[in-house]
Amino acid sequence: MPKQPSNVDAVSFLPLPPADFQLLLILSERELHAYGISRAVEADKTGVHLEIGSLYRMLTRMEAGGLIEERDGSAPPDSPESRRRYYGITALGRRVAEGEAVRLRSVLELAESKKLIALQ
After folding, report:
1. What share of the chain is helix, strand, coil (3-state, %, to 5)?
2. Per-residue b/e over 54-92, b at no fewer than 16 CB within 10 Å?
3. Which residue ranges form the domains of the chain, and what is each CATH number?
């Protein structure tokens, strides 16, 4: 997979679909395989639910966009785990996730200014 140039404008990806943002948040902490990503999404209890078929399509799309990349797994080569494809966030993916977090913060601040919520 060719690397995305470092000057790609992260803002052009925004706003992110909630599931894409969730996936980038998870991969910002550690590399995971698809099943691990699915379990992490469910554990985060954000209301995002990923069917496994949708997850694989999302992984393919986000990898093609340069937001994530396949990484070498950490399992020994003769282990059943070695067949799993591990994914990690790219530098572009991190910039996009940061941009989405900033965008969401501004949305929350706007909601607070409209007296819809109180931020702490």
Report:
1. 55, 10, 40
2. ebeebbeebbebbbbbeeebeeeeeeeeeebebbebbeb
3. 13-113 (1.10.10.10)
Single out the residue of 3, 4, 22, 38 nearest to residue 100, CA to CA.
Answer: 22
Measured CA to CA, the distance from residue 60 to residue 100 in angstroms comes to: 20
Q: How do residues 2-60 score in pLDDT, each as one tens digit?
A: 555 567 889 999 999 999 999 999 999 999 999 999 999 889 888 888 888 899 999 99
Q: Six-digit token pair at 2?
A: 């060719």
Contact between residue 27 and residue 89 where contact means Cβ atoms under 8 Å apart = yes
Q: Are 66 and 5 in contact (CB under 8 A)?
A: no
Work out whether strand 68-71 and strand 86-89 pair parallel, antiparallel, or are unpaired: antiparallel
Residue 33: its H or E element: strand 32-33
Tens of pLDDT, residue by residue over 48-79, are 888 888 999 999 999 999 999 999 866 656 66
Q: What radius of gyration do the chain's Cα atoms show?
A: 16
